[in-house]
Every structure is written in structure tokens, then in C-alpha cells.
Amino acid sequence: MNAVAERASNLDPDKIRLTFQGLLAKTNKERPKPADVQALTSLLNANKEMKLWRSVVGMGELAEETVLDTILGGQSRGHGSRECWRQRLVSMRTDLGYASSPPLERLLIQQVSLCWLNLNLTEYRHTKIMQQSITLTLGIYWDKRLTGAQRRFTRACESLARVRRLSRRIPIQVNIATQGGQQINVAGGDP
User: Fold this and answer.
1) pLDDT, tens digit (0-9, with 9 covering 90-100), for 101-122
2) Which string of DSSP letters, residue by residue, matches 99-147?
3) Is the pLDDT of residue 187 over 60?
4) Most buried residue among 8, 24, 41, 132 by CB atoms closer than 10 A?
């Protein structure tokens, strides 16, 4: 274990988090020092129960930010609108039961919200393009992009519904009367 990571693993959780943030800043650049990368790896491995990696933005959130940047014209503009869209996505995930869902459903809920955002972006761009005088080829291209975005959103919703249906199956008990008044309990599930 690296000396920095070893010292940090003996510290209280707040100091471990500070060390993690410092190492993360040192390694999130072009050509970081190999010792810093090793220290970060060692710190993460020595403190797995803290799940320090959760403080780094996930790929789903990164994709959402990229779509929002595209919609709103870059990171320098539209901060208010960006925050409203973020709140909309949080609300959508809440409505879909993100907080109380198992991990697989959480991944699918995030995929549904990302596909929904991408569908809206594609719909917006499609509408803007179609307002202009365009070539048939460009019109076909944008129709295919829109159809693809709609298909991805629909598949994400169907996947979430399918996983929920399969994970929520509860066996049903049926009582069957036999000759002589005896009852047999049979457990089964939905087909």
C-alpha cells in the first residue's frame, strides 16, 4: 500500500475523504504521476466500505450533462434552465421509484430518464431542422434519428417494466379440495 493511502486509512472518515479528494484532483489531469494514481487506487481499496467512488459523477449523470449542454448551448449559458431540467430528471426518477428500487431497476430508471432526455433533444432538433428548407436526404436522416430515439426510449421503458414484473412475482397459494374433504395447498406463480 502507498504511504499516503496507508496514513489516510488510519484516519477518521472525514480525513480519508479529504485525502481522496486531493488525490482525485491530482490524478484527474493529463499525465498524472504514477505514484498519485497508485495512492488513489490503494486508498480506494483500503476503504471499500466507504464507497468513496460514489462522490465522482457517474457516466449516466455525465451523459445527462452532455445532453443538457447540447440543448442549452454549452456550459457557459443556461444555468437556470439546466437546473430546471435537472430537477425534472430527479422528479422523473422519483416518480419511477428510484430510491426504493433494487440496483438493477435503478440502472434502468436512469436509462429511461436519459433516453427521455435524448428523445426530447432529438425532437427539438428535428423540429428546428424541419422549419427550414432542407434536402430530402437531410429530412430522411432526421426522421431516422427521431425514430431511433423514440425506439430507444420505448425499449428502456419496456425493459424497466419487464424487470419489475419479473422481480415482483410472488407465488400464489391455491387450496384444492380432494375427495374425502382433504385440502391440498399448491404454490404457483403468474405464468
Assistant:
1) 999 999 999 999 999 999 998 9
2) TTS-HHHHHHHHHHHHHHHHHHHHHHHHHHHHTS---HHHHHHHHHHHH
3) no
4) 8
Distances (CA, A) of 184 to 173, 177, 189: 10, 6, 16
* Residue pLDDT, tens place only, 4-31: 555 555 678 888 888 888 888 888 888 9
At 162, list the grid cell.
419487464
- What string of DSSP letters covers 48-68? GGG-GGGGSPPHHHHHHHHHH
Could you state, in order of their start, the residue ranges of all structural domains in the chain? Answer: 3-55, 59-167
Cell numbers of 105, please?
Answer: 431497476
- Cell numbers given for 33: 504521476
User: How many CB atoms within 10 Å of residue 149?
Assistant: 21
Do 19 and 43 touch, CB atoms closer than 8 A? yes
Taking alpha carbons only, the member of 62, 58, 45, 59 closest to residue 20 is 45
Q: Which residue has the higher pLDDT, 8 or 152?
A: 152
Amino acid at 167: S
Q: Which DSSP symbol is given to 188?
A: E
How open is the CA angle 184-189-191, to the nearest 5 degrees? Answer: 125
Is residue 176 within a helix (H) or strand (E), and if so which, with residue range?
Answer: strand 172-177
Going by the DSSP 8-state scheme, the letter that residue 26 receives in this structure is H
**Which has the closest alpha carbon to 64: 101, 100, 109?**
109
